[in-house]
Specification:
By secondary structure, the protein is an all-alpha fold. The protein has 6 helices and no strands.
Length: about 160
């Protein structure tokens, strides 16, 4: 009986195998880049948080930008002054007695400072979460074959148990 061997199929399989290896290499390199980038970003987040702990005055510039963008302190101070004037009018207190009474100077309360701290903490948490996700995904891409190999071995074991 004659036996035919097709060489075209073997060349096609070789080409597909080389393409698969190249794609596997590209995925691993992307995984390593993602892993490294996530690790560097995580270190930068930790460094930023530590520098804010050591020098909390660095938040002042961000608080000024929050105030410049939202006018939060101005809005709150005008609301407080309007509230005080309404209370004074409602109670009908002698204005002269209030003017002559010595009172402590009101501290400059800046709500934008606290908002800046809250926003900074939330942004650091968000960036840290993204960095952790990048490290995890990069690690999974870099170790792609390990998971596939474990799955294949587990499937073979199940097949042997079921068949034998």
């Amino acid at each position: 009986m004659p036996h035919y061997e097709f060489r075209e199929g073997a060349e096609t399989d070789d080409w597909v195998d080389q393409g698969s290896r190249l794609l596997n290499l590209v995925v691993r390199v992307i995984g390593l880049v993602l892993l490294g980038t996530g690790f560097i970003v995580a270190l930068l987040v930790i460094s930023s948080a530590w520098s804010l702990y050591e020098n909390p005055a660095r938040i002042e510039a961000f608080a000024l930008e929050v105030e410049r963008g939202s006018n939060l302190d101005l809005t709150l101070s005008s609301a407080v002054s309007r509230g005080r004037s309404q209370v004074e009018d409602a109670t009908a207190v002698d204005a002269e007695a209030i003017a002559t009474a010595p009172g402590p100077a009101a501290p400059a309360f800046r709500f934008s400072y606290f908002v800046a701290w809250m926003l900074t903490i939330l942004l650091l948490l968000l960036i840290g979460r993204l960095a952790i996700a990048a490290v995890r995904t990069g690690g999974e891409l870099a170790l792609y074959d390990v998971k596939v190999g474990k799955l294949a071995r587990a499937l073979l074991r199940e097949r042997q148990r079921a068949g034998g």
